[in-house]
Design a protein that fits this description.
Four copies of one chain form a homotetramer. The first copy, chain A, contains ten helices and 17 strands. With 333 residues, chain A is an alpha/beta fold. In chain A, helix 5 (103-115) links the parallel strand 5 (92-96) and strand 6.
Chain lengths: 333, 333, 333, 333
């Protein structure tokens, strides 16, 4: 068993920083290197976590033989290139979701993952959320029968999405989560996709995306990603899912986090689940996920909670939704 | 001012009975006659409310010169015939929703209403729900800006819908409410409609209907009518609406009625809003609505809370949804 | 049957105005007179509702032989004098809660009500709330068995209570509601009372009151009245009650009103139940209550939904709580 | 830094088993021994986790020089003896809450902890719940000003408490949590205590306990522990806390766990926070807590998240509540 994995993080935006925070005190892992093109940010993060190895070019980090595993937390458009090179360099690769922005890119990555000797896993974080995994367990036990209707909401305040909408669309950025979960829950495939986007502001991507799926098992699944909630929305994310089966129903509500703080600045429902701070330590779902990734490396087993093929399929469905939204037509898969 | 309206109710199913209960003790109205084809039911209701005039043929009730106003609470397929005759007979006519099952029937009814000297109104009860009307007021005051995204849920337990699905579909039976409200809230028109139905049981109509609308003002509206919730669902109806605007958002939740009773038979959230019993009197939204209809007659003014044209438009949109669900194609209006 | 009750309202503060709004369009009632010591306010209200008879001295209104019924909506300290005189003048009297501020005053009023020929009723509005009356019905049907524990919350934002705390305490002003409901639900009596007040601001009364009751049937009931919620609290009132019985439990939540409006000024959950505006008409619980009072007069029957003795008992329990809070000792009743 | 702590668990009831499940796969800890007086249970647990060292007498486990740290998860009455001996034996000691059943026992344990060279910590698990610790952080930042009123609920279904009520009372078993949190949040002391118990069934302890505290900082705190909810209560625990301050308010809701499963057997809100299963691993708050205890040992620092004195104080307040409930009098501390 590997006792101590030397780990690097590529990409130090908001979420790359979360990776660093979680990995920096994870038993069995030594966070050894970080990489971003922005020297100032690199210095800030390296200083805060007392990291010796810093890189502005990811290729240099990948060339570092000491590094055994990496998190890739960059813009989605860079995923293909970096993931493929990291796999070729023999690293264990944790790639943030979505796998890539196109099906073609996904296929290249899937191929590279198959050929690689290191582990590969895309960060479908929701599968590591106990609310979701207990729902999955209940479904697999047959407690709600066959799934016939699903609705997923994953809405963000407008001020949060403002920094993201030039990089990714709501459907690709958040709809990917629920698309993956719907595929996972039903164990079925999407037959047809219809979608609509709404543009409110002048970003590269529309502010709001809706998609309606028909599954091969006859279920309907509807995806709602409105990245334009009022700025004073109390929750950091309004994420809910309703799953109706022939024998029962399941309701997941990730927006109500069990904590409401009403101070003179407004009403806040801070994250208590995904990566809350506890005594200076990031606990919660992201830790569960990265801990799982680390455990797989230590135990020398391949991560099977989510396969590369599954990650690709979710992207393919979202791409069909993007196409439908653009053409106004139903897309058949 | 008319002091005392002589009133008749045609159709004595579940909801006809609710009309009778509300009208039987409404000040300024004398419930004078009831009508159903089922003699046993006629006797039961007439006996309970001590009503002298009973009819098994609605034509006889309409021929009764004493009756000034009627509620038509029959199957939707009978709406056209009865409504047109009632209007021709000079009665004030309250017609339950939906106006009719086809646009053609709606047009005939709208024509008859225009030609009639009596008042005419379709029972879009939700407009008389304070939760809804206060939302409408907030929208009209500009408090949430321009509407960009809406989602409406109106789901029923499977045991409740079992008695209804041979008569009407979820979209036509319940989606009509939210379609009307979306048209009312946006003040816009539906441009395109896409819909999906799911059939679970062997009724004439599918158990679940979903529709996605694109409005002329660019908003997206999504309608969910899953008439297949588990039988032990605690609420009588899971009715919710989310309205996202450029300056704010509104959430209506009609399922959480403020009362949860957990007895040994399960968890119940009884209706406290639509037509709850209070001291043997039906209060709530249905009373508000019928009281408004009566007030218009008394004051000699035409009901303007909902026009026949609006009722027809909602039916036209639902018919387009039914067509889309059947063909799998997007329908343009 | 009396067809048209001539009605007067004494006291035109916030709630007196609500009475006027409800009574002004109530069938079978003619709002004929209003009274307040403040001439400017008198003119404003009379003008708005086109009322001919206005009084600055309630004695003059009581001397008006045309007036058959009155609402007394004044400060609690004036209740005894005005109610007794109104009853002596032969009017039907609707007195706002609490009946009076002392048990002695209550006894005088109860005596006057017994001796009077007119109806008398104290406005325990919650009994006319369907959420509450359906809970009472479930309890009476034995659905939750014998009650063993109750907790009632009735909390107000600090900016709302600021205008009230010089007139009445939280326990007397709001705790009276839940004390009455606990007595009604259990059908028992309070044996011992312990209470604590907390003073935050410099008003005549403390901002927060808590009381713990032991009932003769062995149940514990706890009353929470914190009139010091943050000003940006979304609900107009945070009113909840939990009733645990040997066979089940009931939860009433009057704060979640089914409507959330998130505009740029904050999050609001407006009243949709007590006296919401619908098409320019005040509907809801206050209308239910005043309608009941009017119906009793019309039908020549005495109001039995709440008796004067019951109103007095609730005041007696609250007075014991006030005494306990002052002395720090348990008070036996 | 200690790399691998040899750990033993004493007591293998419901919660001892949870300790075993969490510790069995915790990095840096080797679960080496378990102990219970029940041979059958010992065999079951040891077999499931493949544990070599098993003991029926805790003294033998404590005599095992290899064991460096222990969890004591026995009946509260055994805490004093076992904890003192474990400390004397030089072990690091994690003692489940409450510290002990009497103040005298607590004092002995505190003394032993002071004299010991090993770490000592009582398992006040709630302090390791992100919902709670984020609330504490907000309070410490002054976001809600000075605390003036608190209400804590920690209610259990009757079928869950049936197995516990002969061992511990609701106030001592669950009220201890919220008493500790109120002391922690206010940073103040309890001055007076008043409490009431309600007995429903024939167990050694009453089914329901209520307590009202007055703090030195003038706040009121009310504790509700009704271990008699209906068996079909959807949540495993109805745990809520309301904290009202001069500048804001905080609401913690641990009952709504974000997951509702409605299958044909009823409505369930399973635990997703305290110790949910994720991929065969117990994650959540208990893991956070034991991980903290382990980290302190590894880093050679004393646990300061909760001190022995604090654990003792919470017990002292609960003992005062038990005394008040018995005598009916207010107890001064």
């Amino acid at each position: 068993m590997i006792e101590n994995i030397k780990y690097g993080v590529i990409g130090l935006g908001f979420f790359g920083e979360k990776h660093v925070e979680v990995l920096s005190d994870m038993p069995g892992i030594t966070l050894a290197a970080v990489c971003t093109r922005r020297p100032h940010r690199l210095k800030e993060i390296a200083g805060r976590f007392n990291l010796r190895k810093t890189y502005t070019d990811y290729k240099d980090l990948l060339a570092d033989a000491e590094i055994e595993a990496v998190s890739i937390v960059t813009h989605v458009n860079d995923h293909r290139e970096i993931a493929v090179e990291a796999l070729k360099a023999g690293k264990h690769v944790f790639l943030e979701k979505p796998m890539a922005g196109t099906v073609e890119d996904c296929e290249v990555i899937v191929g590279a993952a198959k050929a690689a000797r290191g582990n590969f896993m895309v960060g479908h974080i929701c599968r590591f959320d106990p609310r979701v995994s207990l729902a999955k367990a209940a479904i697999d036990e047959g407690r709600i029968g066959r799934i016939v209707s699903m609705h997923a909401t994953r809405n963000l305040p407008a001020n949060v999405s403002a920094g993201v909408l030039d990089k990714i669309s709501p459907l690709m950025g958040d709809g990917i989560h629920d698309t993956d979960l719907m595929l996972w829950f039903t164990g079925s495939k999407v037959k047809t996709v219809y979608a609509q986007n709404v543009r409110v502001r002048d970003f590269k991507n529309p502010d709001i995306g809706w998609a309606m799926y028909r599954f091969e098992n006859d279920a309907v699944g509807v995806i709602e990603t409105a990245w334009y909630l009022p700025d004073n929305t109390p929750f950091t994310i309004d994420a809910r899912m309703e799953i109706i089966g022939t024998e029962g129903a399941i309701y997941i509500d990730c927006g109500n986090t069990g904590l409401t703080i009403n101070d003179c600045a407004g009403i806040h429902k801070p994250d208590t689940v995904y990566w809350p701070d506890l005594l200076g330590k990031r606990v919660g779902v992201l830790r569960n996920e990265l801990s799982y990734f680390g455990d797989c490396i230590k135990e020398g087993k391949s991560p099977d909670m989510i396969t590369p093929e599954e990650s690709k399929t979710a992207v393919a469905v979202i791409c069909a939704a993007e196409q439908s939204a653009e053409t106004g037509e139903v897309v058949k898969l």
